[in-house]
Amino acid sequence: MRQMIPTETHLAHVPDTALLFEGGGYRASYTAGFASVLLEHKVQFDVVCGVSAGASHTVDYVSRDLKRIHDSFITLSDRKPQSGGIRSFLHGNGYFNADYDYMGCIKDNYMPFDWKAYCENPANVAIESFEADTGKSAVWTKKDMPTLRSMMEHVRASSTLPGMMNPIKINGHTMFDGGIGAGAGLPLQMVRDTGVKRVFVLATRPFGYRKKPVSRALKRLYARVSRDFEPLYQALVTRNERYNASLDRLRELVEQGIAYVVYPDEMPVKNTTNNRQKLEDSYIKGYTQGLNDWPTWQKWLFEA
């Protein structure tokens, strides 16, 4: 037995283990349910990692904020046109308004962030973004994000979907979604570089999912959204192959007992879904699955 099961006042520490959130836009409403179950059982990881939407879950999990875990991918969709939508897109703010979604909602106190709790949590974080001008991935940890604004800028950088959100520059580089870079959305090397021995993965795609080859129409779309950045185009058109390779590697880690993957039983929403009721239903399904699967999770986390 690795650790005692948590009590009402003590956290359940899982040593040498990282929690990894896959991205996926509003599919993260489902994994928010998974994360809520882990938080309710007071599970404490040494490192929490994520890319894209998973970067938001990463910092919210470290702040141990159940409400924000829920609201980030469910109730924030109500804040139209501030949070996004067609009107936001037509006004040049992107289909998802990054300015509001990452700092505006904190400033107007609609969705505050518990910076104190985040800083006091001994868990480190690791999030990844993609440098459109170089084709390289950038990885950031707590020490790279010393203020709330800095942290939210880096989370935004990790989550910026080309063509859907306005990009941000960090250290002189134009940054886009971390799911485009190394690992193509499953940054297993980033997890390994943190030094942990095991990883608990919350996936946003059901078991058996594989990305299909990129169609000609999609290549034309990619060419438009990446017209200023050839490395971005190359990363987009090869992402399906790299993602599937990461799935194969993840399967090997599972067979070795190094990784455990929680796959959604179903995925009722798309990455761009912003209908409040559909997102709430997705969260409930993820939460219900998490409660049902908790005994199995618990065994791997604390007894393996």
Spell out the key features of this protein:
304 residues; alpha/beta; Cytosolic phospholipase A2 catalytic domain; eight-stranded mixed beta sheet; 11 helices
Q: Any overview of this molecule?
A:
α1 packs parallel to α2 (53-62). By secondary structure, the protein is α/β, with parallel strands linked by helices. The N and C termini lie close together (7 Å). It is built from 11 helices and 8 strands. It has one domain (13-299): Cytosolic phospholipase A2 catalytic domain (3-Layer(aba) Sandwich).
Number of helices: 11
Counted up, domains total 1
Instruction: Report how far the terminal alpha carbons are from each other.
Output: 7 Å
* CATH architecture designation: 3-Layer(aba) Sandwich
Beta percentage is 15-25%
Report the order of strands and helices.
EHEHHHHHEEHEEHEHHEH
Per CATH, the class reads Alpha Beta
Describe the structure concisely:
The protein is α/β, with parallel strands linked by helices and 304 residues long.
Task: Spell out the blueprint of helices and strands.
Blueprint lengths: L11 E10 L6 H13 L2 E9 L1 H10 L3 H6 L14 H5 L7 H10 L7 H6 L3 E8 L5 E5 L6 H12 L8 E3 L2 E4 L11 H6 L4 E5 L13 H10 L4 H26 L3 E4 L13 H28 L1
Parallel strand pairs: 1-2, 1-7, 2-3, 7-8
Antiparallel strand pairs: 3-4, 3-6, 5-6
